[in-house]
Amino acid sequence: MYVSSNHILVKCLCSGIERRNTEQFVHKMVSNFRAWLLLTAVGCFTFVSSAPAALTTTKTKSNPDKCKPLVIAHRGASGYVPEHTLGSYALAITMGADYVEPDLVMTRDGHLVARHDNELGLTTDVAKHPEFADRHKTKTIDGHVMTGWFTEDFTLAEIKTLKAIERIPETRPGNARMDGIFQIPTFQEIINLVKSLQISQQRPIGIYPEIKHSTYFRRLNLPMEDLVVETFHENGYTGASAPVYIQSFEVNNLKYLKTITDLKLLQLYDSNPSDQPFDQVVSGTDLTYGDMAMPDGLKEVAKYAFAVGPDKSYIIPRNRDNTLGEPTSFVQDAHAAGLKVHPYTFRAENTFLPKEFRSKNPSKAAIGNLYGELRAFFATGIDGLFSDQPDKAVAIRENCIHS
């Protein structure tokens, strides 16, 4: 398996490390890939952009799930590089993440691309493109009114003219300095990147996509489930041992996926237990995420899912003063039902941390003690976690050859 040098372009902006070290690293990458690659070390960001290159399909048998807890790079290393970009995924992998997590949405012409939402205004420079001014619309997505530009109104070729920007620049101003560098990647480009980096990293790397707004896209005649599975299967990812999880906040699409693939499935839980999965709202049931978190609800989830992905408050809720409270029985109940537990999302900035782990710097963007929060959750017996700064979790987990 190889990637043509025409398919990987690398720009490395470095400071604070010796030039010869960068050259030695790049030389190693060239010998492995026949291409340029990038890495982030101290002060060195690597940026990768890839055309939809054809990699040879290989049967994937190795599995990254040997480490505990698994470290899932949430939207890539999104605490350091704008989310859902090849640069963000590449950095997460070089930091030691076991899985990278792309959120998937659809283009008008039926292509899977990685964005947190189908609305493009928050994470791309679409507002600066006058040619797309007439695409600005107001829509109702999963019951929420949104105004902006939406992926389903763009072809892939049009999406590729856009560049990624930082979603929360006030919290991550360093990331915002990289606005305009990265394209919007396709699902296939992410798979190509992961397969390529497995060579240089000499370890299996998993892919953990979330199917976004399943019911909404199905109503537009742009269903994602079969396409996601077909893409995985065509790339050699088959069977329950493949380094893959497919996740969704909805229920019926996961049950459907169970009938067409043996790839591992994960049921996500919204942060508000009283909320319902949107497909359940449409179906007219009274099923809530809180119901699904009870012991009997977890047993029902285990009939179609391999794991559950709760908001971390299901495991350790916050007290009124924003400190961590006492752990619940969620992990034990899920394990009793035969489910793995992968909570979300662990972030290092003060604005996201419990009060006791915030830094003395009053800025919401200041970096606090994420290690403290992670250790509290490790103690509950979780099997994995989603983090915007995957290097933090990798650094403190024990008994893992990748760390």
Summarize the structure.
By secondary structure, the protein is of the alpha/beta class. It has helices spanning 19-33, 86-94, 156-159, 173-176, 187-201, 214-219, 225-234, 252-260, 278-283, 289-293, 295-301, 330-336, 370-378, 390-396, and strands at residues 8-14, 44-50, 70-74, 99-101, 103-106, 112-114, 137-141, 144-148, 206-207, 210-211, 245-248, 264-269, 307-310, 340-341, 384-387.
How would you describe this protein?
Helix content is 28%, strand content 16%. It has 14 helices and 15 strands. It has helices spanning 19-33, 86-94, 156-159, 173-176, 187-201, 214-219, 225-234, 252-260, 278-283, 289-293, 295-301, 330-336, 370-378, 390-396, and strands at 8-14, 44-50, 70-74, 99-101, 103-106, 112-114, 137-141, 144-148, 206-207, 210-211, 245-248, 264-269, 307-310, 340-341, 384-387. Strands 9-4-3-15 form a four-stranded parallel β-sheet, with helices on one face. A four-stranded parallel β-sheet has the order 11-12-13-14. A three-stranded mixed β-sheet has the order 6-5-10, with helices on one face. Helix 12 (330-336) links the parallel strand 13 and strand 14 (340-341). It is globular. The model is unreliable at 1-61 (pLDDT under 50).
From the alpha carbons, calculate the radius of gyration and give it in angstroms.
Answer: 20 Å
The structure class reads alpha/beta
Order of helices and strands: EHEEHEEEEEHHHEEHHEHEHHHEHEHEH
Helix content: 25-40%
Strand percentage? 15-25%
Largest sheet: 4 strands, parallel
Spans where pLDDT lies below 50 across 5 or more residues: 1-61
User: Distance between termini?
Assistant: 26 Å
The chain-level mean pLDDT equals 87
Shape descriptor reads: globular
Total beta strand runs: 15
Per DSSP, the total helix count is: 14
Strand order of the largest sheet: 9-4-3-15
